[in-house]
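Students often ask why we bother encoding 3D structure as a string. The short answer is that it lets us treat folding as translation between two languages. Here is a chain of 327 residues written in the first language.
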Amino acid sequence: MNLLNASIQQTRKFLDSFDIILSDCDGVIWYPNTGIIPGTLDVFGKLQNLGKRLYLVTNNSTISAERYCKRVTTNGVTIKPEQIINTAKVISWYLKKIKFSDLALVIASSAFRQVLINDGFKVIPEEIKLQVDLQRITIMNEDPHTAVRHIEDDPAIRAVIVDFSFSFDWAKMALSINCLKRKDVSYFCGCKDDWIMYKHKKKFKVQCVSFAGSGPLIDVINRQSGRSPKEFAKPSENLKNYILDTCDVKDPSRCIFIGDKMNTDMQFAALCGFKKLFVGTGADTINDAKLESEHPDFYVPSLAMLQPLIDLLENESKIKRNLLRNN
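And here it is in the second language, the structure alphabet:
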């Protein structure tokens, strides 16, 4: 249903059909390089005032939960770090569940790695600095024997964890492949998108830009190691279990997932049994739905367009209350 064509009764029924909102961020609330999409946070604020619980669910762990909160709360929405759900937090939750206490090789952003470190896990490399990495690569290029010593299997490593990383280099890939040849090494991955897409304004026109994600690099590790990772990003079973375990979801049908991508957001909502709201402000369009699980229950070109519908219902309720008071 296109909510812009909904009657007042249909809009009321839509708003009454869910108690918990789970929303993607990039392409729904903001664009990575141009900031907040106008009006979106106003809608979330109004929905919170109606008693709806809000969680932000993202495959992007390059930004800390605290930074997400700061970005959102400065625009009028109340949200706490525990309401931010990303791949780093889900993997850390899983490691706690299986009581993992050994050393993990982590190829991910510094924000992702910090989540694991804060939760008490031992990770290598201990620190990622681009300048140091470039120096190390230079040394390796000049001395192949030194390079081999850096990528030899380390028996202390008992898990390989891969997510998007700006410093995803040959040495880390080679070491992870060598470690994964041991069957006692666990293998986990977060974001594995083939492409990362976003819209931005250029010369007064909105353009869609794409660049390679972590997916092709993870595919190389999979192929060369002969291993397949446990997945923790949308649309994975492990993320579903995390949400059901930590978000006090009593009835999945009373949850709505808001997203802009068919193969991640809409498929994940279908996996969980959530209602699906697709917004047209991201990389995909409503016509990109190919599988039955990708077809949304509701559609709106921009989340901001829900504001006048909510305002209309609020005004109608005020008028009814005034009439009852006068009678």
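Translate back mentally: The longest strand covers residues 195-202. Keep this in mind for the problem set.
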